[in-house]
Predict the 3D structure of the following.
Amino acid sequence: MRSDPNTGTIDILYKIVGQGSAALATRKAGDTIQCLGPIGNAFILSNRTTHPLLLGGGVGIPPMIFFADELRKNSSLTPFVMMGSEIPFPFTTKPSKILVPNIPSDVIAAMPLLDDWGVASRLTSQQGYQGCFEGYVHQLAEHWFKNLDYKIQHGVEVFACGPTKMLKAVAEFAKRNQLPCQVSLEEHMACAVGGCAGCVVPYKENNKVTAMKRVCVDGPIFSAENVY
């Protein structure tokens, strides 16, 4: 979720779903664990990007926080983060202090950390959480994008991480609006170093499958048009 090269620390947000994450949850301050990383590739901004649109769903939220932390260091960029969850968000939501045009006036829930950074964020859910957009992140993105000034529209690039169904919907939104879009895929990984090929996905060029790519080392980030 975050890293600090100056202190040599990283922050990891995780959810207990099985034996491995349950064992991780028993670790206490001062314990030692072994890890291997970073593995794989990274999001890359194109030269035209001025308004990066970051979309995170569920466990795809932490990578968007990490990316927003990097983007805010560039004063020429205006990132906007949308995050969706159907379970309570892993942080206390608060009304945003940052005004965002083309967002419904009652959609004001935001992540306080991003607000403190000066990065605009909005939250979506179908669970009736206060201040959240009633729907999915791609639907809020569509609502926001369609009324933007053309010059701003031209500078929008989409970056997304989340469940497969969400990423497919985001890819369709991007294609419909002719937006460059990069997606960070979620796949089960047995080895995570490219040896087992258990996380391969079909890779398309000109709408034809030309290869099978390993999400762990060839990805996890791909141009949406190559995988959806």
